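Consortium newsletter contribution from the modelling node. Members have asked for a concrete example of what our holo predictions look like. Here is one, prepared for the NAI complex that several groups have been discussing at recent meetings.
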Amino acid sequence: MTISFDGRVAIVTGAGGGLGRAYALELARRGARVVVNDLGATRDGTGHSDAAARVVEEIRAAGGTAIANDASVTDAGQVEAMVAEAIAAWGGVHILINNAGILRDKSFAKMEMADFRAVVDVHLIGSANCTKAVWEGMREQNYGRVLMTASSTGLYGNFGQSNYAAAKLGLAGFARTLALEGARNNVRVNTIAPTAATRMTEDIFPPELLARFQPEQVAPPALYLVSEDAPTGVILGAGAGVVQAAHITLTRGVALAEPTPEAVAENFAAIMDRDGEIVPQSGAEQAMTILQRLQGL
Ligand code: NAI
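And here is the predicted structure:
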C-alpha cells in the first residue's frame, strides 16, 4: 500500500535544512502542500537566512507545491500568522511536524540560565506555540497528525545537554497527553527521536558514519507517524534505516507495610526488578496499578 499525502496540507518547522528539509521534500513528493518554516538561524539559534525559500525552490523544481515561512516558532503571533496563511492558501492544516531546534551545549555547572531558557523556548515552547495554533482547526475538521521531535538525549540523557534534555523529554510527555486529548477528534500525536548527520551533529559523528546517517533515512518513519493510518502516542527512534520504539515503563514494585526510607533501601532491588514490567497507557493507569498492588493483585 502506497502512503500518499494527496490533498493534505503540512507545516514542517525548521525545514530549511537537515531533517526538516528531508521531511518537507518527501511530503511534497508524496502530494502534500507544504509550508516550509525556518527562520534560518545558526546552530545556536542566532541569525537569519533564506534557508526556507531555498527548500521551497527545490520542492517547486521537483513539481511540488510549497510556500516558505520565516516565523520564529518562539513567537506565538508569527506562528498564528503562518497558520492563517496556510489556511487562507489551502483551506486547512492536516499535518504539523515540530522539528525546529537549536543547541547551546555546556555542562550544567557552566551553563547560564539564559542558554537553558533559550533551548527550552525553541524546542518545547516553540512546539507548543505551533501545536496550539493548529489544534482547534484539527479538532474541528476531525483530522490532524502532529509529530514532536524528541531526542535520545531527552529519553536517556547526554553529558552537556541538560537544557536540551529537559526540553526533549518535555516534548515526549506533551505528545503523550495530546494523544489522549486528540483521540476523540482523530488527531494523532507521536514523537520521533532521530539520529542523523546534520549540522547539529556534524562534530560528533565519526566521518566514516556521516554517509550512513542521512536525514533522508529518518523521513520514512517520520512520514509514517503523520500518515492517515498513523498510530498515536508512540515514540520512535530512527536513524540510518533502523527504526526502534521507546517505551516509558513501570515495574511491578513493592507494597511496603511500613513505608520508611529504610524500607525503600531494603527493598530497592525488588522495586527496580523489571520482571512483569508494563507500559501504562496513561498516568491514571499508574494509579490503577497502585490500587491493584494494595489489593494484592
Ligand atoms: P538543523 O540545525 O539542521 O535543523 C534545525 C532547524 O531549525 C534549522 O534549519 C534552524 O534554522 C531551525 N530553527 C532554529 N530555531 C528556529 C526557530 N526559532 N524558528 C524556526 N526555525 C528555527 O538540525 P537537525 O539535526 O535537522 O535537527 C532537527 C530536529 O531534530 C531538532 O529538533 C533536533 O533537536 C532534532 N534532533 C536531531 C538529531 C540528529 O541526530 N540530527 C538527534 C536528536 C534530535
